[in-house]
Design a protein that fits this description.
Blueprint lengths: L1 H18 L19 H6 L26 H5 L6 E7 L2 H12 L5 H12 L9 E4 L4 H7 L3 H13 L2 E2 L4 E3 L11 H9 L2 E3 L1 H6 L5 E8 L3 H12 L5 E8 L9
Parallel strand pairs: 1-7, 2-3, 2-6, 6-7
Antiparallel strand pairs: 4-5
Helix pairs in contact: 5-7, 8-10
The structure holds zinc ion.
């Protein structure tokens, strides 16, 4: 029975590959295995691996020794404990994210989640709750899905961690952040998120892992985590597919 079903699935998979030949998730070039990158794009995808800042997950060019944190981590406090990202935000990462967000290709979430499973390795044995950063309902209606939620759903399947999207709500559609100063962005976002204290009390004691596609300035993650803390959340970690790393910090 088991074997028979496996065979049917294998045949169905082959038939699907025939109808939809696998293509690179970034550039669309033909490849052999589905849901992955072609060799050229893979080379330009900078996966983040040790050594990196134990707080913010920013890669270090050289190993500064155990316990050393980045200047960014020292510069300011944050309402979450740790942040991790799978890759450095590059042209390839940007293409993957924009296809995921706007090109209506939710199956890309599988590839993205696989990379994030590795990046969040320190989180999974703590029985965390996955919480995708919410979109405002109007924007969600327009786009038909929230890319953070698609990633979260796939990541939940891969890691076994439960996803509970209802812990956080986006009250305002979120004005365009482009052209605003850091302080203006913060003020703009401070009022945007609202957590549900009753829902939070039901997961008491379990850490929350905030999920998003990209960390640019970190403002969205800070605002989300601040709203959760205000509603009583104790431990929050952050996980994204890509994070912006300035040229100076890029591993050479
Ligand atoms: Zn490619």
């Amino acid at each position: 029975m088991e074997t028979g079903l496996g065979l049917v699935k294998a045949i169905a998979g082959t038939a699907l590959n025939f109808i939809y030949p696998p293509v690179c998730v970034a550039c669309g070039a033909a490849i052999v295995v589905s849901d992955t990158l072609c060799a050229a794009c893979f080379q330009r995808l900078h996966a983040i691996s040790a050594p990196f800042c134990p707080i913010l997950g920013i890669p270090f060019a050289t190993d500064p020794g155990p316990g050393t944190v980045s200047l960014e981590a020292l510069a300011e406090t944050r309402p979450y404990e740790r942040a991790r990202a799978a890759v450095v935000y590059s042209d390839v990462a940007q293409r993957i994210i924009s296809r995921l967000k706007y090109a209506d290709r939710p199956e890309l979430a599988r590839f993205v989640a696989q990379q994030m499973l590795r990046a969040g390795a320190e989180y999974w044995d703590q029985n965390p709750v996955l919480l995708p950063v919410p979109l405002h309902w109007q924007r969600r209606l327009m786009r038909r899905y929230n890319q953070a939620e698609e990633i979260g759903r796939r990541l939940s399947q891969l890691s076994g961690a439960e996803m509970i999207p209802g812990l956080l709500r986006r009250k305002a559609p979120g004005r365009r952040q482009v052209g605003l100063s850091g302080a203006e962005r913060r003020r703009n976002l401070e009022r945007v998120f609202e957590a549900a204290p009753e829902a939070l009390s039901r997961i008491k004691g379990r850490p929350i892992v905030l999920i998003d596609d990209v960390i640019t300035t970190g403002t969205t993650m800070r605002a989300s985590a601040a709203a959760l803390r205000k509603a009583g959340a104790e431990r929050i970690d952050v996980l994204a597919f890509a994070r912006v790393v300035t040229a100076v910090e890029l591993p050479i």
